[in-house]
Amino acid sequence: MDPKKMIATVRAAGRHVLLEDEAKSLLSHMGLPVNLCALAAGEEEAVAAAETLGYPVAVKVRSPDVIHKSDAGGVWLNLGHAEAVRRAYREMAGRWGPVAVTVQPMAAPGVEVIAGVARDPQFGPVAMFGLGGIFTEVLRDVAFRMIPLEPKDARAMITQIRGYRLLAGYRGRRGVDLTALEEILLGLSELVEKIPEVREVDLNPVIAYPDGALIVDARITVA
Amino acid sequence: MDLRAVFYPRAVAVVGVTDTPDRVGYNLLESVLSGGYRGPVYPVHPRLKEVQGLKVYHRLEDVPGPVDLAVIGLNQHATVEAVETCGRLGVKGVVCVAGGYREMGDEGKELEERLVAAARRYDMALIGPNTLGMINTDAGLNATFYPMPLRPGRVSFLSQSGGIGLMVLRKAHDEGLGINKWVGVGNRSVLEFADYLEYLAEDPGTSVIGVFMEGIDDARRFVQTAARVAGTKPVVIYKAGRAEGVNYAALTHTGSMAGSFAVFRDICRQFDLFLVASASELVAACKALACAPLPRGNGVGVLTHTAGPSIALLDRLLQHGCRVPELRPETLDKIKEVLGPNPPVVLKNPLDGAGQAFLPEPYGRLAAALLEDPQIHLLVGIHCLHRHWRFPSRELADLAARYQKPVLACYVSTWEGAREDRELLQEAGVPVYTSPEEAAVGAAALVHYGRRRGVSVCGP
Question: What are phi and psi of A153, to 5 degrees?
Fold first, then answer.
């Protein structure tokens, strides 16, 4: 779907936050590597989607009323068979009624990073990069750059963080694909430049592999 | 808007002059008169007849000649009217000292809007409001309410704070660093940091720009302008407001939030701007850039006769991306010629010449050996004040000229003990410091702008 049209639809519905599947389709439209998710309106559709995608899968609640999905119990990971999908769905339906969900294949393990765009009151759109989990939330090991980014800026953001050695490889561990991460950061910069309605982006996590990277969850706020 | 006319006015009016030194107006006039300004100075006050030997005009309209700059020492309300009058009379620019505008909340904001509207109506440059004023030693003009001795030079400073701005002025004076222009930018209601930077970029008197900043609203324009200016003139930035929770203090000072320091620091890195961590580092960096040539690489050689200061120096140098290269065998041979074949110290960089480096002659030969090493692009010479052993100043000055590489002296001393040496060295293009921390920042600033100018840099 055309990004402008999609954003218009979201705004017409009175929303500012794109749902995960909308955000991912926007990112995918920009050529960014996302773990695409299937939409399922109910339990049977969820199981059918899981069967098609192949197990294990992640099932997440899809509702504009549930923004922080994990905190609310709306994210079910590593579901290995149809029965597990059904149990997850029923648990969520018990909480929110007959909700829609997204189903996506579980991403292979790798190094989790986060990337995003924030609006700084003084600098305007600013790109952000850090390692996932406690590295960003607790240790604040994060790099910022003003958008638009040049390729050298994206590389410098990645090498600047203290946890860079975890990405570069250490003690015999293979490093991750830094170019793939750079491309994601440059893609975010381009997204904001091309579609100024995009206010904030939170890709959390992005899983980095020795070969490539995958955006596993995404949240986008639009004006 | 004509900023040149403001910095080089043909005549100055001091509006709101007073007859006692306990008031701002009196000191504004004293500063203007004591700075060596050659043009006519017109004090204005509705009732006074004579102040500091000058005839006082009762209204700005009564002043006999055209005025380019009006320095206004009135309160915030009367200032708005005075600015309007200045505009009507064709004054090119005003310095508005009074505070009590947008930093005070809604009522002040409305008053500030009226002030700005008056300046804009006449396309008048307005410095401040809420400022100590402005200085241009090039025109002998001290338009602040702090009369003080000023040494002319090539460095210009912009400061969001009068207090830190004064620190910088006093420190520069202490350090033997001459200044060219100085602006307390205050609330930046008409002229922003970026406007002054653009002016200073074109100003022939200025070769280095130092900035003290708390917080600004259009940080995007600031870094973009600073990066462009830094392409031709080094810009050094000291940003306060590093800790979380200082936003309110900054907002109530000059009307802008401090913002996130992590974001500011990273974006300075993105635009390759040199950031320092204190007012003394700001002066130290500007002094090196104003004094010494830019190095052709990031290899720093250090010569000392005492290890500690060289280690403190290294800490900072390495943090700032300088290298301390190993010495080549040829260099070691030259060093052994001075120290003998079996010296009591490990021969390395930093080079500790121990007892041999107490005296200026061998010190000079060791310094020459380091400067001849092609891996070394810049030399820092450390020496401690002694009652009988003079500083190796003549040697360092000669070597700087002979090798055309930047040389910095770090004299473990007070200025009382090193003032004459400092004058000789700085005249010869060798900046002198009394602490290794400041010497390191000076060296790092030179390496930074050497690299930025596209001179080839070896190593990572």
Answer: -70, -45
